[in-house]
Amino acid sequence: MEGVGDDAASAVAPLAKWRNDFARAFQYYLDRSTPHPVQRWLGTLLVAAIYVLRVFYVQGFYVVSYGLGIYILNLLIGFLSPKVDPELDVLEGASLPTKGSDEFRPFIRRLPEFKFWYAITKAFCIAFFMTFFSLFDVPVFWPILLCYWIVLFVLTMKRQIMHMIKYKYIPFSIGKQRYSGKRSSASSSGVSRD
């Protein structure tokens, strides 16, 4: 009896070791990609282009594409939303400054950029993998799905933009803000007054 258990344990051990090594290597490369957002997004754009070409070539899998679009829209809303929603935090005081005299609080996203990128890339990879199984190729009239997704996108983004206007926040910051103070005429002319 002991020999049977030992054989099963010895068969599982290499598989668990391989899985652990693969997970460690994957996490290593994922961590190395963190400071390179442009390269990461270009890679995701490449994966998305491969997926679009696959769907175009096969002329199917429109339901998979629709589900992918809905998922990406959901991720986009999380990316554009503040971590603490001021609408829900009204009783305790707004988390975002609404007046010039309010204390500065930086915009913190509900879904950080790295997690947003990772989720989108993973979604495109899973959707691409699904295109190899005819089970997911449900016959539908794709223009209706496209129109419905566009209407959903417009209504959702309208609601999000109205929320941004109401609570006066912008989810994007471009570069580091620079302040330039006025120089006095004496220090700019290089002449010292003694």
UniProtKB/TrEMBL annotation:
Give TM segment ranges. 63-81, 116-134, 140-157
Sorted keywords for this record are: Membrane, Transmembrane, Transmembrane helix
Q: Does the keyword Coiled coil belong to this entry?
A: no
**What is the designated name of this protein?**
Protein RER1
Q: Name one Pfam family in it.
A: Rer1
- Role, per record: Involved in the retrieval of endoplasmic reticulum membrane proteins from the early Golgi compartment.
Entry GO terms, CC: endoplasmic reticulum; Golgi membrane
Q: Family, per the entry?
A: Belongs to the RER1 family.
Its localization reads:
Membrane
The biological process GO terms on file are: protein retention in ER lumen; retrograde vesicle-mediated transport, Golgi to endoplasmic reticulum
Kindly give the membrane topology term recorded for this protein. Multi-pass membrane protein
Q: Which InterPro entries match?
A: Rer1 (IPR004932)
